[in-house]
Protein backbone atom coordinates (compact mmCIF):
# COMPACT_ATOMS: atom_id res chain seq x y z
CA UNK A 1 0.00 0.00 0.00
CA UNK A 2 1.50 3.34 -1.09
CA UNK A 3 0.91 6.46 0.99
CA UNK A 4 1.29 9.80 -0.74
CA UNK A 5 2.04 12.83 1.43
CA UNK A 6 -0.12 15.81 0.60
CA UNK A 7 1.31 19.31 0.63
CA UNK A 8 0.52 21.44 3.66
CA UNK A 9 -2.58 23.58 3.38
CA UNK A 10 -1.79 27.18 2.50
CA UNK A 11 1.79 26.43 1.38
CA UNK A 12 2.93 25.91 -2.14
CA UNK A 13 5.85 23.81 -3.12
CA UNK A 14 8.82 25.79 -4.44
CA UNK A 15 8.91 25.80 -8.22
CA UNK A 16 12.65 25.04 -8.31
CA UNK A 17 15.74 24.44 -6.18
CA UNK A 18 16.99 28.02 -6.37
CA UNK A 19 14.91 29.38 -3.50
CA UNK A 20 17.46 28.76 -0.65
CA UNK A 21 20.18 30.69 -2.55
CA UNK A 22 19.68 34.00 -0.67
CA UNK A 23 19.88 32.15 2.65
CA UNK A 24 23.11 30.43 1.62
CA UNK A 25 24.52 33.77 0.49
CA UNK A 26 23.64 35.35 3.83
CA UNK A 27 25.35 32.54 5.71
CA UNK A 28 28.46 32.89 3.59
CA UNK A 29 28.62 36.63 4.28
CA UNK A 30 28.29 35.98 8.00
CA UNK A 31 31.09 33.41 7.93
CA UNK A 32 33.36 35.84 6.08
CA UNK A 33 32.52 38.80 8.30
CA UNK A 34 32.76 36.93 11.62
CA UNK A 35 36.60 36.83 11.83
CA UNK A 36 36.82 40.55 11.07
CA UNK A 37 34.22 41.32 13.72
CA UNK A 38 36.17 39.28 16.26
CA UNK A 39 39.39 41.12 15.35
CA UNK A 40 37.75 44.55 15.46
CA UNK A 41 38.16 45.14 19.25
CA UNK A 42 41.86 44.20 19.11
CA UNK A 43 42.34 46.41 16.04
CA UNK A 44 40.71 49.38 17.75
CA UNK A 45 42.86 48.93 20.86
CA UNK A 46 45.97 48.57 18.70
CA UNK A 47 45.16 51.82 16.95
CA UNK A 48 44.47 53.50 20.27
CA UNK A 49 47.70 52.30 21.89
CA UNK A 50 50.10 52.68 18.95
CA UNK A 51 48.73 54.74 16.11
CA UNK A 52 47.33 57.66 18.10
CA UNK A 53 50.55 58.28 20.11
CA UNK A 54 52.53 57.90 16.89
CA UNK A 55 50.51 60.61 15.17
CA UNK A 56 50.78 62.87 18.22
CA UNK A 57 54.55 62.34 18.30
CA UNK A 58 54.87 63.25 14.62
CA UNK A 59 52.87 66.44 15.22
CA UNK A 60 55.04 67.29 18.22
CA UNK A 61 58.19 66.94 16.11
CA UNK A 62 57.09 69.96 14.06
CA UNK A 63 56.52 72.13 17.14
CA UNK A 64 58.83 74.11 19.37
CA UNK A 65 57.61 72.21 22.39
CA UNK A 66 59.60 72.97 25.55
CA UNK A 67 58.83 73.10 29.28
CA UNK A 68 57.06 76.42 28.77
CA UNK A 69 54.23 74.75 26.85
CA UNK A 70 53.73 71.58 28.89
CA UNK A 71 50.31 72.62 30.19
CA UNK A 72 49.07 73.56 26.73
CA UNK A 73 51.35 71.95 24.17
CA UNK A 74 48.89 72.79 21.41
CA UNK A 75 49.82 76.46 21.86
CA UNK A 76 53.50 75.76 21.12
CA UNK A 77 54.67 77.58 17.97
CA UNK A 78 55.34 75.62 14.82
CA UNK A 79 59.02 74.96 14.17
CA UNK A 80 58.70 73.38 10.75
CA UNK A 81 61.74 71.25 9.98
CA UNK A 82 63.98 73.03 12.50
CA UNK A 83 63.93 70.09 14.94
CA UNK A 84 64.92 67.68 12.19
CA UNK A 85 67.69 69.91 10.84
CA UNK A 86 69.00 70.34 14.38
CA UNK A 87 69.04 66.57 14.91
CA UNK A 88 70.92 65.79 11.69
CA UNK A 89 73.40 68.66 11.96
CA UNK A 90 76.35 66.46 12.85
CA UNK A 91 78.68 69.42 13.26
CA UNK A 92 76.59 70.79 16.12
CA UNK A 93 76.69 69.25 19.62
CA UNK A 94 73.15 67.82 19.44
CA UNK A 95 73.62 66.15 16.08
CA UNK A 96 77.10 64.92 16.97
CA UNK A 97 75.82 63.32 20.17
CA UNK A 98 72.94 61.70 18.29
CA UNK A 99 75.31 60.29 15.65
CA UNK A 100 77.58 58.87 18.36
CA UNK A 101 74.58 57.26 20.04
CA UNK A 102 73.48 55.81 16.69
CA UNK A 103 76.87 54.16 16.09
CA UNK A 104 76.95 52.79 19.64
CA UNK A 105 73.47 51.34 19.15
CA UNK A 106 74.42 49.75 15.82
CA UNK A 107 77.50 48.09 17.32
CA UNK A 108 75.55 46.96 20.36
CA UNK A 109 72.72 45.55 18.22
CA UNK A 110 75.01 43.61 15.87
CA UNK A 111 76.94 42.01 18.74
CA UNK A 112 73.87 41.29 20.86
CA UNK A 113 71.80 39.78 18.05
CA UNK A 114 74.73 37.74 16.77
CA UNK A 115 75.60 36.32 20.19
CA UNK A 116 71.95 35.65 21.05
CA UNK A 117 71.45 33.74 17.81
CA UNK A 118 74.71 31.81 18.18
CA UNK A 119 74.08 30.76 21.79
CA UNK A 120 70.42 30.00 21.17
CA UNK A 121 71.09 27.89 18.08
CA UNK A 122 73.95 25.99 19.72
CA UNK A 123 71.90 25.17 22.79
CA UNK A 124 68.85 24.20 20.72
CA UNK A 125 70.89 21.82 18.55
CA UNK A 126 72.44 20.08 21.56
CA UNK A 127 69.09 19.88 23.35
CA UNK A 128 67.69 17.72 20.51
CA UNK A 129 69.60 14.70 21.82
CA UNK A 130 67.85 12.50 24.38
CA UNK A 131 69.65 12.44 27.73
CA UNK A 132 68.70 12.45 31.38
CA UNK A 133 67.82 15.91 32.66
CA UNK A 134 67.11 17.42 29.25
CA UNK A 135 63.71 18.78 30.32
CA UNK A 136 65.22 20.36 33.43
CA UNK A 137 67.96 22.06 31.40
CA UNK A 138 65.41 23.40 28.92
CA UNK A 139 63.44 24.92 31.79
CA UNK A 140 66.58 26.43 33.33
CA UNK A 141 67.61 27.97 30.00
CA UNK A 142 64.28 29.79 29.77
CA UNK A 143 64.55 31.38 33.23
CA UNK A 144 66.25 34.63 32.04
CA UNK A 145 63.50 35.11 29.45
CA UNK A 146 60.75 34.43 31.99
CA UNK A 147 62.07 36.80 34.66
CA UNK A 148 60.67 40.35 34.78
CA UNK A 149 63.06 42.79 33.14
CA UNK A 150 63.41 45.03 36.17
CA UNK A 151 64.16 42.19 38.58
CA UNK A 152 66.72 40.64 36.23
CA UNK A 153 68.56 43.85 35.32
CA UNK A 154 68.61 45.26 38.85
CA UNK A 155 70.21 42.00 40.00
CA UNK A 156 72.92 42.42 37.38
CA UNK A 157 73.39 46.02 38.51
CA UNK A 158 74.24 44.77 42.01
CA UNK A 159 76.52 42.09 40.58
CA UNK A 160 78.44 44.72 38.59
CA UNK A 161 79.17 46.89 41.64
CA UNK A 162 82.87 47.62 42.03
CA UNK A 163 83.38 46.87 45.73
CA UNK A 164 80.85 44.21 46.66
CA UNK A 165 79.79 42.92 43.26
CA UNK A 166 79.88 39.26 42.36
CA UNK A 167 81.58 39.89 38.99
CA UNK A 168 84.64 41.53 40.53
CA UNK A 169 84.65 38.94 43.32
CA UNK A 170 84.97 36.14 40.76
CA UNK A 171 87.26 37.84 38.24
CA UNK A 172 89.56 39.62 40.68
CA UNK A 173 89.40 37.89 44.06
CA UNK A 174 89.04 34.27 42.97
CA UNK A 175 90.49 34.01 39.47
CA UNK A 176 92.94 36.93 39.61
CA UNK A 177 92.24 37.95 36.00
CA UNK A 178 92.31 41.70 36.77
CA UNK A 179 94.86 43.78 38.65
CA UNK A 180 92.18 45.67 40.56
CA UNK A 181 88.39 45.65 40.84
CA UNK A 182 86.93 47.16 37.67
CA UNK A 183 84.23 49.77 37.22
CA UNK A 184 81.54 48.09 35.13
CA UNK A 185 78.76 50.66 35.22
CA UNK A 186 80.86 53.67 34.16
CA UNK A 187 83.50 54.25 31.51
CA UNK A 188 84.24 51.96 28.60
CA UNK A 189 83.37 48.80 30.55
CA UNK A 190 79.74 49.92 30.64
CA UNK A 191 79.33 48.78 27.03
CA UNK A 192 80.53 45.28 27.97
CA UNK A 193 78.21 45.20 30.98
CA UNK A 194 75.25 46.26 28.87
CA UNK A 195 76.08 43.68 26.21
CA UNK A 196 76.37 40.88 28.78
CA UNK A 197 72.99 41.68 30.31
CA UNK A 198 71.34 41.97 26.90
CA UNK A 199 72.72 38.63 25.67
CA UNK A 200 71.88 36.89 28.94
CA UNK A 201 68.34 38.20 28.74
CA UNK A 202 67.77 37.63 25.01
CA UNK A 203 69.41 34.34 24.03
CA UNK A 204 66.71 32.13 25.64
CA UNK A 205 64.19 33.58 23.18
CA UNK A 206 66.42 32.54 20.28
CA UNK A 207 66.82 29.14 21.92
CA UNK A 208 63.06 28.72 22.20
CA UNK A 209 62.34 29.72 18.59
CA UNK A 210 65.13 27.62 17.08
CA UNK A 211 64.18 24.63 19.21
CA UNK A 212 60.61 24.88 17.91
CA UNK A 213 61.91 25.11 14.33
CA UNK A 214 64.05 22.00 14.79
CA UNK A 215 60.96 19.98 15.63
CA UNK A 216 59.77 20.33 12.02
CA UNK A 217 62.91 18.81 10.49
CA UNK A 218 62.33 15.10 9.70
CA UNK A 219 64.67 12.79 11.57
CA UNK A 220 64.94 10.64 8.47
CA UNK A 221 67.14 13.31 6.89
CA UNK A 222 69.70 12.99 9.68
CA UNK A 223 69.53 9.20 9.58
CA UNK A 224 70.14 9.18 5.83
CA UNK A 225 73.00 11.65 6.23
CA UNK A 226 74.57 9.49 8.95
CA UNK A 227 74.36 6.43 6.70
CA UNK A 228 76.09 8.40 3.94
CA UNK A 229 78.89 9.26 6.37
CA UNK A 230 78.05 12.90 7.08
CA UNK A 231 79.35 14.17 10.40
CA UNK A 232 77.66 16.55 12.81
CA UNK A 233 79.09 19.67 11.20
CA UNK A 234 78.09 18.51 7.72
CA UNK A 235 74.56 17.75 8.93
CA UNK A 236 74.41 21.18 10.54
CA UNK A 237 75.55 22.87 7.33
CA UNK A 238 73.56 20.81 4.82
CA UNK A 239 70.36 20.03 6.74
CA UNK A 240 69.85 22.07 9.90
CA UNK A 241 70.73 25.60 8.77
CA UNK A 242 68.94 25.41 5.37
CA UNK A 243 65.83 24.01 7.05
CA UNK A 244 65.92 26.76 9.68
CA UNK A 245 66.27 29.58 7.14
CA UNK A 246 62.62 30.79 7.36
CA UNK A 247 62.74 30.63 11.16
CA UNK A 248 66.06 32.46 11.35
CA UNK A 249 64.86 35.21 9.01
CA UNK A 250 61.99 36.08 11.34
CA UNK A 251 64.08 35.53 14.47
CA UNK A 252 66.89 37.87 13.41
CA UNK A 253 64.41 40.60 12.44
CA UNK A 254 62.57 40.40 15.76
CA UNK A 255 65.82 40.38 17.75
CA UNK A 256 67.08 43.36 15.76
CA UNK A 257 63.96 45.44 16.41
CA UNK A 258 63.84 44.51 20.10
CA UNK A 259 67.53 45.19 20.69
CA UNK A 260 67.74 48.43 18.71
CA UNK A 261 64.73 49.83 20.59
CA UNK A 262 65.68 48.44 23.99
CA UNK A 263 65.08 51.06 26.66
CA UNK A 264 64.43 49.08 29.85
CA UNK A 265 67.84 47.42 30.08
CA UNK A 266 70.05 50.57 29.92
CA UNK A 267 67.59 52.61 31.98
CA UNK A 268 67.48 50.11 34.85
CA UNK A 269 71.20 49.36 34.61
CA UNK A 270 72.52 52.94 34.44
CA UNK A 271 69.63 55.21 35.37
CA UNK A 272 68.62 58.38 33.53
CA UNK A 273 72.18 59.24 32.45
CA UNK A 274 73.88 56.37 30.62
CA UNK A 275 77.68 56.47 30.17
CA UNK A 276 78.94 57.68 26.83
CA UNK A 277 80.17 54.21 25.86
CA UNK A 278 76.69 52.73 26.46
CA UNK A 279 74.57 55.64 25.27
CA UNK A 280 71.95 53.76 23.27
CA UNK A 281 69.70 55.81 21.06
CA UNK A 282 66.59 54.94 23.06
CA UNK A 283 68.02 56.34 26.29
CA UNK A 284 69.52 59.27 24.35
CA UNK A 285 66.10 60.26 23.01
CA UNK A 286 64.69 59.95 26.52
CA UNK A 287 67.34 62.32 27.83
CA UNK A 288 66.74 64.76 24.99
CA UNK A 289 63.02 64.80 25.77
CA UNK A 290 62.53 64.39 29.51
CA UNK A 291 65.84 65.63 30.92
CA UNK A 292 66.37 68.73 28.79
CA UNK A 293 62.60 69.26 28.40
CA UNK A 294 62.88 69.68 24.64
CA UNK A 295 60.07 67.44 23.49
CA UNK A 296 60.06 68.79 19.95
CA UNK A 297 63.66 67.74 19.30
CA UNK A 298 63.12 64.42 21.06
CA UNK A 299 60.05 63.72 18.92
CA UNK A 300 62.00 64.53 15.77
CA UNK A 301 64.69 62.06 16.83
CA UNK A 302 62.01 59.43 17.44
CA UNK A 303 60.52 59.96 13.98
CA UNK A 304 63.98 59.66 12.41
CA UNK A 305 64.52 56.42 14.33
CA UNK A 306 61.15 55.12 13.12
CA UNK A 307 62.02 55.91 9.50
CA UNK A 308 65.40 54.21 9.85
CA UNK A 309 63.85 51.05 11.28
CA UNK A 310 61.19 51.00 8.55
CA UNK A 311 63.83 51.30 5.84
CA UNK A 312 66.03 48.60 7.36
CA UNK A 313 63.04 46.28 7.82
CA UNK A 314 61.86 46.83 4.26
CA UNK A 315 65.31 46.17 2.79
CA UNK A 316 65.77 43.10 4.98
CA UNK A 317 62.39 41.64 3.96
CA UNK A 318 63.09 42.34 0.29
CA UNK A 319 66.50 40.66 0.43
CA UNK A 320 65.29 37.64 2.39
CA UNK A 321 62.26 37.13 0.14
CA UNK A 322 64.49 37.33 -2.93
CA UNK A 323 66.89 34.83 -1.40
CA UNK A 324 63.97 32.50 -0.54
CA UNK A 325 62.70 32.61 -4.11
CA UNK A 326 66.17 31.90 -5.47
CA UNK A 327 66.52 28.94 -3.10
CA UNK A 328 63.14 27.55 -4.17
CA UNK A 329 64.12 27.76 -7.83
UniProtKB/TrEMBL annotation:
Q: Write down the superkingdom of origin.
A: Bacteria
UniProt-annotated stretches for the region Disordered: 1-24
Where would you find the membrane-spanning parts of this chain? 33-62, 102-127, 139-159, 191-214, 242-260, 299-319
- Keyword Cytoplasm found: no
Q: Which Gene3D superfamilies match?
A: MetI-like (1.10.3720.10)
Q: PROSITE patterns given for it?
A: ABC_TM1 (PS50928)
Q: Which cellular components does GO assign to this protein?
A: plasma membrane
> Which cellular compartments is it found in?
Cell membrane
Q: Which residues form the ABC transmembrane type-1 domain?
A: 102-316
Q: Which UniProt keywords apply?
A: Cell membrane, Membrane, Transmembrane, Transmembrane helix, Transport
What is its membrane topology? Multi-pass membrane protein
Q: Which GO terms describe its biological process?
A: transmembrane transport
Instruction: Supply the InterPro entries for this chain.
Output: ABC_transporter_permease, MetI-like, MetI-like_sf
The record's principal subcellular location, in a coarse class, is membrane
Give the family, as the similarity comment puts it: Belongs to the binding-protein-dependent transport system permease family.
Q: What is this protein called?
A: ABC transporter permease
What species was this sequence derived from?
Answer: Streptomyces dioscori
Q: What is the lineage of its organism?
A: Bacteria, Bacillati, Actinomycetota, Actinomycetes, Kitasatosporales
